[in-house]
């Protein structure tokens, strides 16, 4: 055993986080019939698919190795992050350089790899599909239909992992009536205002059973010890293998066993593009930020809202 290997064994947090896993095998049933043939992750936020924002976030956190967990009817995701030579040649011939740049951008973002999740058996199973690619390294998990409007969150989570070891989840405070949509965490404070120790995890609890109002959103930094735990984790809520169940086991273990689990408290803006209402709000908000769209869109939106509440819009 060389000195570097011995140092890593005794100090597991010293291994840098360089790989990101993006589960994108879901069926997208909430958006049918649009997602019958188009992955929900490819639904556009104005003119860029949601999953590209997720990959850009990973790259901004210096994760240049991205593994997509895909399934049937997800080929368009692979095509999007590949070259499109015929289209590029057409745009170049027409002198449409800005569009050409936008078309080439996804291919140059990161090294993107793919593995298929044969059956939709839950997020825990999707993460387990990454084991061969990740190996004994810590890794980040970014859900493909969550957009986080803060590039610092993932970087902060990686920093906490490097300082403290274990696994790290992103936590956001939600209204009591929303806790049943998430995994919720029981937490204890640490010596840092934005970092807590996770003591309990409950998947989609009722408001009465929730350990807190702090919900796990779609960002994780996992110790590789999660893989053997996932292999022995039985199906939980909904008959699926839950990542929260595996993280709960790690939360009660020592550093040598892959624990504990920490939470980074996030108070920024998160967009759940897997929810119809939030998806529409995301498109509108992102469009209103665009210099090429806002001058035309904002006055129209103002007039539309005024007409709507005067009852003049035919609703």
Automatic annotation (TrEMBL):
UniProt KW keywords: Nucleotidyltransferase, Transferase
CDD domains recorded: UGPase_prokaryotic (cd02541)
Catalytic activity: alpha-D-glucose 1-phosphate + UTP + H(+) = UDP-alpha-D-glucose + diphosphate
Keyword Cell division: no
GO terms, molecular function: UTP:glucose-1-phosphate uridylyltransferase activity
Signal peptide coordinates: none
Gene3D superfamilies attached to this UniProt entry: Spore Coat Polysaccharide Biosynthesis Protein SpsA, Chain A (3.90.550.10)
Pfam families per record: NTP_transferase
Entry-linked InterPro entries: GalU_uridylyltTrfase_bac/arc, NTP_transferase_dom, Nucleotide-diphossugar_trans
Domain called Nucleotidyl transferase: residue spans: 19-281
This enzyme's EC code(s): 2.7.7.9
Assigned protein family: Belongs to the UDPGP type 2 family.
NCBIfam families (alphabetical): galU
Name assigned to this protein: UTP--glucose-1-phosphate uridylyltransferase
Gene encoding the protein: galU
């Amino acid at each position: 055993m060389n000195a570097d290997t011995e140092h890593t064994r005794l100090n597991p947090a010293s291994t840098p986080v360089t790989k990101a896993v993006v589960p994108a095998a879901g069926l997208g049933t909430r958006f049918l019939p649009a997602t019958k043939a188009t992955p929900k992750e490819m639904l556009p936020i104005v003119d860029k698919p949601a999953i590209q924002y997720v990959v850009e976030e990973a790259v901004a956190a210096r994760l240049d190795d991205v593994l997509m967990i895909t399934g049937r009817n997800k080929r368009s995701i692979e095509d999007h992050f590949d070259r499109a030579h015929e289209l590029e040649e057409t745009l170049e011939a027409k002198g449409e350089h800005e569009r050409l740049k936008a078309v080439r951008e996804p291919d140059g973002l990161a090294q993107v790899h793919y593995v298929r999740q044969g059956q939709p058996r839950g997020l825990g199973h999707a993460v387990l599909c990454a084991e061969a690619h990740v190996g004994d390294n810590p890794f980040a998990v970014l859900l493909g239909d969550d957009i986080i409007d803060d590039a610092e969150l993932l970087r902060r989570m990686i920093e906490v992992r490097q300082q403290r070891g274990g696994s790290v989840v992103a936590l956001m405070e939600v209204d009591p009536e929303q806790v049943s949509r998430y995994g919720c965490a029981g937490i204890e404070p640490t010596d840092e205002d934005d970092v807590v120790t996770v003591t309990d995890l409950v998947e989609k609890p009722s408001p009465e059973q929730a350990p807190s109002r702090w919900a796990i959103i779609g960002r994780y930094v996992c110790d590789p010890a999660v893989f053997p735990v996932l292999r022995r984790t039985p199906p939980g809520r909904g008959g699926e293998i839950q990542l929260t169940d595996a993280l709960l086991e790690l939360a009660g273990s020592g550093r040598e066993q892959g624990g504990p689990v920490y939470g980074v408290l996030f108070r920024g803006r998160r967009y759940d593009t897997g929810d119809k209402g939030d998806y529409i709000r995301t498109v509108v908000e992102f469009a209103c930020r665009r210099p090429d769209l806002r001058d035309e869109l904002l006055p129209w939106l103002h007039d539309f809202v005024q007409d709507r509440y005067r009852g003049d819009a035919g609703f």
